[in-house]
Amino acid sequence: MANHQIKIITEEGESVSFDCAEDEDIITAAIRQSIYLMSSCREGGCATCKGECTEGDYEIGKVSSQALPPEEQEEDLVLLCRCYPTENMVVEVPYTLDRIAYSEEGKEFSTEIIVLESLSTNVMKLCLSRSDGEKEIKLDSGQYYDLEIPGTEITRSYSPANIANKKGEMEFLIRLLEGGKFSTFLSHEAKVGQTINACGPSGVFGLKADGFTPRYFVAGGTGLAPIISMVRFMKEWGEPQLCTIYFGSTLEEEMFYVQELTQLEKEMDSLTVKLCVWKATDSWHGEKGSVVDILKKDLQETTSKPDLYLCGPPGMVDAVYSVCEETGVPKEKVYLEKFLPGVS
Ligand code: FES
Predict the structure, then answer these.
(1) Cα dihedral: 183, 188, 194, 196 (round 10)
(2) Which atom of ligand 1 lies closest to the CA of 42?
(3) Are residues 337 and 319 in the same domain?
(4) Residue 274 CA: distances (Å) to CA of 131, 161, 182, 328
(5) For ligand 1, which residues put their CB under 6 angstroms from it?
(6) What is the per-residue pLDDT across 88-137, written as a single tens digit (0 to 9) for each?
(7) Which of 202, 223, 253 corresponds to the end of one domain?
């Protein structure tokens, strides 16, 4: 199988080169050579690894049309996690050299379970504390960690709800999936005091500097975790933008973190929280309707187009994305992270 030379050119014009086999995607080839380009889902769904091919030819594997629309494919934009070179290639990426890592060393550490709590019928809270002697959690809110199931080499990626801290503690919201490996571990084997190895942080989902533009945060299910982390970060640093959290579930009993969100709203003058239950009973005091419909109504009524941060299952993210198009929110103002059902 032929090997091709890949040259990545960063925003400031620096370059990194490595080789890639024809049946290998560019992100995997780079990792094989200890080069960690920006990537997140590695399944063609999030657009984190997007670049522009300026020389050479390639094939593109299966990708989400939101992450790489057909018109962008025609303009030679590529998702490197689904890009298979057929010639030597040059790819320009929209980030600087310091975002490329050359080793995972220092990113792995051991932790101990300090809280394990059921939050709803299918969501658990898992809190971990570093047990390797360090007391610092480095994190840009929105990033994720890989957690390893003890006694195996199986890992799953989760974004924490906490912010960076010097206590060494992390707080995860984990959806339990029937038959899911991490879910089975959490439901049947995990205990307070047990060791879990973590690796991270990784990923680029997070707050973007955009002046005083209001921020709408839209979360479905455990997609709430990175959203809370970002809003907690805004509180910690006194960021002044007006912000609204739209958190949706189908049924009332599936709602969780209501108290935490209500508390956050009390503590931040700039924050409004909308708890949206699609099939609400008369006794529900929050918003009644799907998060997508409630967001749509607000977007139709507002004159200043906000920045939108979305995290949730693909169906919700796709529906919100369509609402943004319908209501004239430009796609450059929509930042999204889908979590994929197969990875719990
Ligand atoms: S990392 Fe390539 S699309 Fe998500």
Answers:
(1) -20
(2) 1
(3) yes
(4) 37, 18, 30, 22
(5) 39-42, 44-49, 67, 79, 81
(6) 999 999 887 877 877 655 578 999 999 999 999 889 999 999 999 999 99
(7) 202
The more confident residue out of 211 and 181 is: 181
Q: Which three-class secondary structure state does DSSP give residue 14?
A: coil
Same-domain pairing of 339 and 219: yes
Residue 251 lies in a domain: yes
94 and 11: one domain?
yes
Cα–Cα distance measured from residue 155 to residue 71, given in angstroms and rounded to the nearest whole number: 35
Tell me, yes or no, whether 231 and 264 share the same domain: yes
Structural domain total, the chain: 3
Alpha carbon distances (Å) from 217 to 235, 246, 265, 281, 291: 14, 6, 13, 25, 11
CA distance 148 to 224: 22
Ligand 1 nearest atom to the CA of residue 80, by list position: 2
Residue 210: how many CB atoms within 10 A of its CB? 13
Record the pTM.
0.76
CA 291 to ligand 1 centroid distance, Å? 26
Q: What is the distance in angstroms between the CA of the first residue and the CA of the last residue of the chain?
A: 34
Token pair in block for residue 42: 């590695």
For residues 225 and 196, state if they share a domain: no
In a domain, 163, yes or no: yes
CA 50 to centroid of ligand 1, rounded, Å? 7
CA of 99 to the centre of ligand 1 (A): 15
| Domain around 296 | 215-343
β-bridge mates for residue 261, sequence order: none
For residues 236 and 171, state if they share a domain.
no
